[in-house]
Amino acid sequence: MALGLAFVYVPLAVVLVSSFNTDRTFGWPPSGLTLEWWSRAWDSAGARTALLTSVKAGLGATAIALVLGTMASFAVARYRFFGREAVSILVVLPIALPGIVTGIALSNAITTTLQPLGVSFGLFTVIVGHATFCVVVVYNNVLARLRRTGGSLEEASMDLGADVFATFRHVTFPAVRSALVAGGLLAFALSFDEIIVTTFTAGASVQTLPVWIFTNLARPNQAPVVNVVAALLVLLSVLPVWLAQRISSDPAGGRI
Predict the structure, then answer these.
(1) 8 A C-beta contact, residue 180 and residue 248
(2) Which of 8, 140, 203, 204 is the most buried (most CB within 10 A)?
(3) Could you tell me the pTM of the whole model?
(4) What CATH code is carried by the domain that includes residue 98?
(5) Is 68 left (phi over 0), alpha (psi -120 to 50) or beta?
């Protein structure tokens, strides 16, 4: 396990250290340490625009995932209907498929259905593409919480005279609130560092931060800035995952 974790996290640590390297190349060990590249990365208009685009795409995809994932989880957990298990499979399937398959399918769907309606490749199509797999994490988090809490508390609330909306506000929503926050944070993290689906759904004028890194990786004069942006991407991806884990765990360390 230690070797496996080292194989994953040591290269990430190398990227972080390299972002302070005085050398312009990816040489190791660093010949010195400097903050110059962080300053240049901040002054890079392309990097700032790509960061803003990634944030917009992540927030949009997370909002869609929260709505659709929550609705699907309530339908599966609270109702019995024909094809209920098929719904679960269809919701989870996009994250299990290879990203390139999902990207090609979405690209074909946009070309054949949305473009005739005047919707071209751009930020909107990126958000829709990211939402297809972001729904999964929200759905799984909320469904697990609903199955754990059951429906007895809601039934007791209604037996005591509360209507549907009061029961949802005072009983159901507080029970799933932390699951929604955790699912939303994970969905944002997934969207923020996605590159394969983005490549197939973004137009020429839209460039997220991972796509910007991939595009500038082969440019020698951009190597130090790419290191800085990659380090920033690692930090921004770790934060929501850490927060989601903290929110979905009780103080004793057990899962709620």
Answers:
(1) no
(2) 140
(3) 0.80
(4) 1.10.3720.10
(5) alpha
Q: How many residues does the chain have?
A: 256
Contact present, 77 and 147 (Cβ < 8 Å): yes
Instruction: Answer whether residue 153 is part of any domain.
Output: yes
CA distance 172 to 143: 13
Structure token pair of residue 2:
């230690």
Alpha carbon separation from 23 to 30, 42, 224 (Å, rounded)? 7, 18, 8
Domain count, the chain: 1
- Answer positive or negative: Cα dihedral of 71, 184, 196, 10: negative
- Measured distance CA(75)–CA(115) in Å, rounded: 32
Range of the domain at 93: 48-247
Residues in CB range of 66: below 8 A, 6 or more apart: 138, 180, 183, 184, 187
Q: Is residue 39 part of a domain?
A: no
107-140 b/e (C-beta count within 10 Å ≥ 16 → b)? beebeeebeeeeeebebbbbbbbbbbbbbbbbbb
pLDDT tens by residue, 39-70: 777 777 888 888 899 999 999 999 999 999 99
Does a structural domain hold residue 77?
yes
Q: Give per-residue pLDDT as tens, 218-247.
A: 776 667 778 788 887 777 777 777 877 777
How far apart (Å, rounded) are the C-alpha atoms in residues 191 and 199? Answer: 13
In a domain, 189, yes or no: yes
